[in-house]
Amino acid sequence: MHRRVFCLVAAMWGADAIASTGPLAKLVETDVLTLPVLTMFSLLVIVFWWGQRRIRLERQRAAKSMSACAESERRFRNLFEHTPEISVQGYDRNRRVIFWNLFSEKLYGYSAQEAIGKRLEELIIPDCMRSGVIEAVDNWVNGGEGIPATELTLRRRDGSPVHVFSSHVMLHGRDGEPEMYCIDIDLSARKTAEDQLRKLSLAVEQSPESIVITDLWGSIEYVNRAFELTTGYCADEVIGQNPRVLNSGKTSPEVYKGFWATLMRGESWRGEFINRRKDGSEFVELAVVAPVRGKDGTVTHFLGIKQDVTEQKRAAAEINRLAYYDGLTGLPNRSLLMDRLGLVLAVSRRQPRQDALIVFNIDRFQTLNDARGHAMGDLLLQALSRRLSALLREGDTLARIAGADFAILLQALDIHREDASRRALSVAEKLHAALREPFDLGSETAVITASLGITTCPDDTDDTPLEILRRADIALHRAKDAGGNQSAFFETAMGDVARQKFRTERELRRGIPAGELRLYLQSQVDEREIIQGAEVLVRWEHPERGLVPPGVFVPVAEQSDLICELGVWVLENACRLMAEHGSEGRKLRLSVNISPRHFRQPDFVPWVCELLSIHGVDPSWLTLEVTEGLMIEDIDGVVAKMRALTAFGIRFSVDDFGTGYSSLAYLKRLPLHELKIDRTFVQDAPENSDDAALVETILAVAHSLHLQVVAEGVETVRQAAFLNARGSMIHQGYLYGRPQAASEWIPQWLKQLEGVLP
């Protein structure tokens, strides 16, 4: 039994311990080792074996640990050697560099070769920090407290400062000596950004302009101190509110419309708002509002920079008033009048137009001033300015240029000088009428007259404001020399023409409702000289001047609203005449000229249709003659109206064809029935090859468009023969009869009608 135990122990010990020839084997064979002794021995062997095994395991583990440590150190060094944006330095207990990674080279400017072996304080520590750093490191190495992580300003090789966040780790090397590792993060970019942000924040907060930041929905997120001082609202009261809290209701909606349209395009807007403070007072702000974009370019906020310009505008307005306005009447003064005359001349160089200047002086004003005192004279001047201002159009200028001298600048009266003069004279007549009314001056009244000098402008391309004023002054003196209380033109002949036109317009305006117009007819015949209808004409039978030719009063009517009244009168009387004979079974075809101004009236179409319906006239008996000038403007509207009237049954003719601006493309669109060849082509066509070619061309156009032709101005047999040789058409002219009063023309028509009828 004890042998087996021994052998087991020996086996645990190893094969070499129990060799068959060994001394222990002999002891076992001779039973010298008793069981207790053997047992004790076995236990000793087991303990010894176990110890040896532990030693081997520890040696193996130590070898592996040494290998792992080496690998770990290699990885550590490789990791920190190439760590980007982080400076890692290692120092021994004497503060000498033992490790210097690549970013340390970049950050501090020393290569690893230059840094290794140098002391910390010799490389990157500013002089002012040296003693403190040396003491802190020595204290830590010798068992004191560690160095806390903190922000430091260190030194580069070139002496420039560098801001870093520095943390420190104490390790022990292979020899057990302490090693300190510093991990520095470059804060220079952040410091620069923080400094910029701090400066910007100070600038924004201390800015004298109000600054507002809103989100995309207009909710206020920030206001500065200037905003609070300007508006009276503190930040807490407006944060989260919309800027419309300042709205006074006096800023034009167009301003807001343009404001949002600009911002929605991603652009900056500049303009003015009339806002209201917390206390209710109004103020004017000059604002620049811009979209704020994020890094990806999308708009995230809106920034408003606003300046209170209330006082500046008030001061500017006062300066402007003193410089350009009369202190007594508040009217523009001579300086402003001259400025506006300059603008008028500049505009007239770009577009044809005629303006006029009226200079007038109160007759015998000095006598009134001397008799009633300067205070009463001032009251009169103020009352006069108020009364005359109410008479002028928007855009015209009433100015006080001296004591009792005033001027009126009338802009864009007409493109023709004669017509502009006529309109200026009309204004002068209104001024005389207004001055005849007594002026209430408190305790007294005054009745005054004035002398007026009128000139049109520009007179030529070299005209100047001073020259215009000089001409008006000359005309004023003529009016004064003639006895006062009248108007005088600078050019007498032109003034006479203007007076005549003004008189004609005034008397025609009275004569239409007074029944002074007369209906005339001129026959339109076919190639057999049988009357097919007539053109309606109008004459004015003046009670004093007799029969006034249409060439005198029609152009005057065309330049005013009278042409519409004239057209209404003619068409109503033409319908009445057609209805009268239509009721007796006689078809009377009439052509009536319609002016472009009358045709463009919004209610023209329903009015004509209703007029025919009221009189019971067949619409096909009526032909409306329109000129080619009607087609120049709003061709789509013209076509729509013509088609509506054509659908009702009315016929259309183009009058004076060939003298206007129509094109074949326009003619093709228009619902036409006939063309009228202008008399200028007909008169010389038999002798003039060019006119003959034009007539033949017009006939070809009419034929291609399936239109009837009416030739005007046929006065000779030769002209009639020329036309008849080239096709079937209607003739109109003195050869077949001059225009006659309807009362004379109708009997002749009836006689021919009776001879033709079976």
Protein architecture, described:
This protein is α+β, with helices and mostly antiparallel strands and 758 residues long. The chain has 28 helices and 27 strands. Strands 18, 19, 20, 21, 22, 23, 24, 25, 26 and 27 form a ten-stranded mixed β-sheet that branches. A five-stranded antiparallel β-sheet has the order 2-1-5-4-3. Helix 1 (2-13) runs parallel beside helix 3 (35-81). The protein starts with a helix and ends with a helix.
Question: What is the element layout, followed by pairings?
Answer:
Layout: H1 2-13, H2 23-29, H3 35-81, E1 86-91, E2 97-100, H4 102-108, H5 112-115, H6 120-123, H7 130-141, E3 150-155, E4 161-172, E5 178-186, H8 188-206, E6 210-215, E7 220-223, H9 225-231, H10 235-238, H11 253-264, E8 269-276, E9 282-293, E10 299-308, H12 310-324, H13 334-350, E11 354-362, H14 365-372, H15 374-389, E12 397-400, E13 405-414, H16 417-436, E14 439-440, E15 445-446, E16 450-457, H17 465-481, E17 487-489, H18 492-511, E18 517-525, E19 531-542, E20 546-548, H19 550-558, H20 562-582, E21 590-593, H21 596-599, H22 604-615, E22 622-627, H23 635-648, E23 651-657, H24 664-669, E24 674-677, H25 679-683, H26 689-704, E25 708-711, H27 717-724, E26 730-731, E27 740-741, H28 742-756
Helix pairs in contact: 1-3, 14-15, 16-18, 18-19, 19-20, 20-22
